[in-house]
Amino acid sequence: LPGLHVFAIAFALEVSVGKTNTVMALNNSNVLLPCTFITCIGFQDLVFTWYFNSTELLILPPLPLQIYHGKIKNKASEPTVIRHNPRVEFVGSTTKKDNNISIVLNNVEFSDAGKYTCHVKNPKERNAQHNATIILTVVHKMVETDNTVTLIIVGVVGGLIGLLILFMLIKRVVLFIIKKTQDGKKECLVSSSGNDNTENGLAGSKAEQKAPPKA
Predict the structure, then answer these.
(1) Considering only 4-13, 94-103, 195-204, which range has the smallest mean pLDDT?
(2) Which pLDDT belongs to residue 174?
(3) 114 with 23: CB under 8 angstroms?
(4) CATH number at residue 42
(5) Where is the Ig-like domain (predicted)?
(6) 128 inside domain
(7) CA-CA distances (angstroms) from residue 112 to 41, 106, 119, 166, 209?
(8) Taking the model in full, what pTM does it have?
């Protein structure tokens, strides 16, 4: 049934190595290989394994490719190691909010570059399995990113924004001056329309009008 299918997907086991699946490390340094898992119904006797250039999907992978193998009894207990490479250190925790099963690879060498797969198997979900892979690149030195193009773009955009702001300020000043000039002209017109035009005898003047002479 469709409803049962959606229900089954909602409770599926999921493994993640973060937003990016690539990591770059400097030769002879230590590098973190992140991995977390999610299960909505919890877990019991969960088994997780880290593989190098291999996955659990292969039948009986060679033991050297299995760089860390651990088991977690339940949510209240931390993982116990079953087998691990001497240079691999477990740095995760499963008693906290996120089920973290990350590891650190110490003193990486150029030969350590490759694919690292984090595989999880949960017997509580009818032995549901899932994995995620992260790619490690080992370099002699870190290359500094050339931000020249970025700085040029930021400078151009900043200049355009500055010009736009300056244009808006000039526009406001010009409009303010025009408004003041128009207001001044209106005041002059009002003032001139109410002047006393006695001397020139214009219409609307206050001069006394003499009565027409009698015949």
Answers:
(1) 195-204
(2) 83
(3) no
(4) 2.60.40.10
(5) 2-135
(6) yes
(7) 36, 10, 19, 57, 117
(8) 0.60
